[in-house]
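Researcher: Structure for this, please.
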Amino acid sequence: MIPPKEAAQKYIEEYYPDCRAAILAGSVVRGEATATSDLDIIIITNTSKPPYRESIYRYGWPIEAFVHTEESFFKFANGDLDRRRPSLPLMLSEGLILKNEGDLAGFLKDESLRMLQRGVRPFSAGELKNCRYRITDLLDDLIGSANPDQDLFIINELVQEMGNLLLVGNGQWQARGKWMARSLKNLDEDLYRELMGALKAFYGEGNKKRLLAFIERELKRFGGRLFAGYKIVEE
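Model: Predicted structure, token format:
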């Protein structure tokens, strides 16, 4: 397998020789690559085609290409900020510039850093109520459940909801998958270890009391349970 930067450069030269900018991002740039890591490459072109994402195997690497125009980059990046999960700005801000026609890659990198520095948009009052209601509903499902198989799926959704409430409620970006673990650990390592201990107690022993106590306590920091009086009006 050739080095990641060399593979990314070869890919650009072969498939996007006329692109205006190219940036290699992801775990290989952060020094966190694993045996299954791919090459994330952001490519900026002048194409009239809609923006797209393409997966391919080349040069011994799985490659994920995110192909944009300058205009579509900003549209998608701002969309990422609106949903509180800044995937595209984060990739570009930490990425390694491979092609930089007219300093476009440098410009987009600086703009991405500015986007991230503005920080995450807090939950509105309505969004917070919705989140509290969903967590309350999942808590009651878990408390009332006598089916260990169903518990697995309830807990998966419950931890996702509570994790993002903790993150956004403390001014951090939302996350999922491996990024949820990383983000919660960066937020508060003691809190993260407590949550991990509660999850291990469930997965190892079938004991859900620690997790229930953890969620109930942390939810109180944001107003607590919400059921009676909750109302949603469909527009």
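Researcher: Any notable elements?
Model: The first helix runs from residue 4 to 15. The chain has ten helices and five strands.
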